[in-house]
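Our preliminary data section would be incomplete without showing what the modeling component actually yields. Below, a chain of 271 amino acids is followed by its predicted structure, encoded as tokens that our downstream tools consume directly.
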Amino acid sequence: MKRLVVALTAIAAFSAPALAADIAARPYKAAPPVAAVANWTGCWISGGGGYGIARTNRDSRDVVAPNAINVLNNTSGSDGWLITGGAGCDYQFYSRWVVGGFVDGTWSNLNGDHAWRVFGPGEAFVGQSKLDWSWSAGGRIGYLVNPSFLTYFNAGYTQAHVASYNLQNIVAPFGPTGLQVPGQTFDGVFVGSGFEYQLDFLPGLFVKSEGRASWYNRKDSRLTCVAAGTDCVGVGPDPFGNIDSRKLATYTAKTELVYRFNWGGPVVAKY
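Predicted structure:
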């Protein structure tokens, strides 16, 4: 019996290394990598174009007799193309939130015929108004749907300029009136919303689309005679002392390319 035990022990001792060699080593599995999130903190520039409409509410009144109490109202619209450019800086916090400030400028051709006012019986005028430039400064706050897609809201201060334009008489006596509505710069506020999305083919390049509404304060101006016409005998003050009171609102949609200078910076968090 003792011999049998000794023999089995010897067999087990010699076979253990062979069995261990036959057992394959367990492969090492690396931990999954942490998803990298690019840092939206930094500055950017942008440029693009779009389309806009403008709505003008106009009150007109005469301050010289016999039409001193004549106050009339009308609303007219303009539309057209625009090009825009801007710059700003953003700060990313709490992983998914982005806050920033910016300034932008817009050059536009928002124009349309404006049925102007009736000075007296049998008189009606028309002129072509054009909003030719505006600029804005404000802030925005956004939320990252994923590391490359930002949705945001913005708001701030804005100015817009309406160019001067001449008035035509559209009832007898037909023809140029000689009157001009002066150009004016309006102050106002804006709100907007949009999204910004990273393009794959160039690091730091994004596309941004935004809709914006702007409302401007009412402003008065006095018409002037710039030439002889049906209501002017020469250059000088308007003989009827006509006051043009305008309140402006604009609505724009634009798409821009955005270049972020810091894109590809350090990882800031995991989504």
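The CA atoms of residues 61 and 70 lie 5 Å apart. The chain is about 10% helix and 60% strand. Preliminary results of this kind motivate Aim 1 of the renewal.
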